[in-house]
């Protein structure tokens, strides 16, 4: 495929001004793991020494020279250490060469972009992925800490200015290998029979060699338990599914419910099951959702010829693991970072699931659902098993008098995890931070989730670092590469770090780019983002050559072209679709707690499946990724180039490429959608939306005024003026934060975008308003609550608008 980056690079001119070096030395004065204390200790004694010196008579010139030097050094130190943590340890401290007055206009950015794009190699990403996935690396394990953490740290130490480690001591959940989890039949004489498997069948040579190191399938933070009762099938376990059973006079209270994966976050399935008073929950991967079979067509006689390793589909004995907590960080230190001295609540007071939960395969699910009695379930509830799905409450045939037993032996244990950050220091605004991140931990080998993303971030860091070390360029702002720990256990590593760095992030972070996994498919790119990043995303994808040769031959020469053709916005087909940013990955708390403009990107599929089929199973390996998703790692390379382009623009252009008018347009569209969907119910209750539309107009006017100011900026504009404009652009999302939090979910502050209260994976617009309407319509809340939430959203929209104008 032709490439725009096959031509020789045009070298940059050397900086016309002399380079200067930032050097520092600090004692290991490290009480409570703090380096900054040592730094302040040194400063204190230096000041005491200076104060005791008798200043001799000097010329005015000497005094002036000394004053200038002192001011410069103070400025350097402030910029250099303004992002320091009281709980981090620096791994490498090389000299940081910073160039003055590095040009940052659009033409120069394009030259640097081409250099970085050409430097990036698909073969490197393939090599990283193969190395990282050689061992399973669940959070808190020796493999995660010694294998993957060390691997990333070593690479960043070679290519970046500095690498820092942030340790957190957190509560994690594990299966007890000496007390296996299972589901079984219980006969009237109390005989327990036909236990389900909690280990998966290895299907390749690599899996067979490595299977002993893979923890059995479990749902993290499920309590240990031993419960029995009637079995009920509840489709996907949504609130409307339970409502449908109520309409059919099926009472699941005290029973064990079986639901299929998909449609919403597994943790929300557990919350709803608890609310409906289920004694336990079983979650299975239905073959219609994960194995590509037709409705009601698979039974054990067909085996796994349709599935992995022959195709990309989930095999019959594959099981999806996953957390079922509330994705709010360490359960014992809510709202605070889990440092050594942090107060921890008792485990009994932690917000954790209360009923036992266990995932099973569709081969095991068949044993139960094929003999389940009760009423015939709705057609939409019929899955891929070759049976008639029924609501349950009893069994038929030889199991007619049986009940179901669910046994879980999981345990909790505190472990120290480590989040890793790597830095390329900025030349002119070192105290402004542009972040790119991905999590490190995996339930098994992490071929896709997350290590495909880790491989991309490693190569972006190496390529950008090589340009910096060539001394041809340094970004205007500091670029931070993030390697998060324990994401799979509930976004723990990123949440604890945000809780620790919240104040700095609110005042100094420019934007965050997240790559949870690089590839869950290879059809097109997919993005979630706050609206002021939309245009930036379109521009970046338009700069990256299409990795698909067939698409290239069809004259879709860029990533953007395929994105627009295959995944366009239904409401505006002239542009690609960008989803609302909710939760489910490490951008969550950066946006929700600190208001950092965030975007999440990956390559995805267009097939109608709930996720890539072997998600969180033993089959999520390097072999699977190379065979079925990205054989030549060209999609990974394209995604890496998109991420690099985003970083380069955000870190190097003098005026940030954020578009507040896009936010204004989105707010108007969201208000119109709310009016369309809920206007009649609101009108019936005399709840007006006029004020919401009015404040959206105020925001729109402010956004357009700011956009006009930006258009009038000249290349020689005063740096302070540019800084003020950039601050206005980055602080818009801070204005949308309500520090009281969304009702019932105080950890979520963003009143425009937050996780849906019924599906934490999806992004809900106006979450407080939508949730309060939902409860009011069901008689579980009041319409006064709706009025209060509309008022709160209006206040925060005005707050965001005020950032864009003068007082």
Task: Provide tags for this entry.
807 residues; Aminopeptidase; Glucose Oxidase, domain 1; 8-stranded mixed β-sheet; 4-stranded antiparallel β-sheet
What is this structure, in a nutshell?
By secondary structure, this protein is of the alpha/beta class. Helices cover 38% and strands 16% of the residues. It contains 23 helices and 24 strands.
Descriptive account of the structure:
The protein has 807 residues and is of the alpha/beta class. Helices cover 38% and strands 16% of the residues. The chain contains 23 helices and 24 strands. An eight-stranded mixed sheet has the order 2-4-15-17-16-18-22-19, sandwiched between helices. Helix 7 (239-247) links the parallel strand 9 and strand 10. The longest helix has 25 residues, at 660-684. The model is unreliable at 1-86 and 91-106 (pLDDT under 50).
Largest sheet geometry: 8 strands, mixed
The helix content, as a percent range, equals 25-40%
Counting structural domains, the number is 4
Structural class: alpha/beta
Q: Count the strands?
A: 24
Strand fraction: 15-25%
CATH architecture tag of the largest domain: 3-Layer(aba) Sandwich
Report the average pLDDT across residues.
Answer: 87
Q: At the first level of CATH, what is the class of the largest domain? A: Alpha Beta
Question: Regions with pLDDT < 50 over 5+ consecutive residues?
Answer: 1-86, 91-106
Please work out how many helical segments DSSP would assign. Answer: 23
Report the CATH superfamily of the largest domain: Zn peptidases
- Read across the widest sheet, the strand sequence of neighbours is 2-4-15-17-16-18-22-19
Rg calc:
28 Å
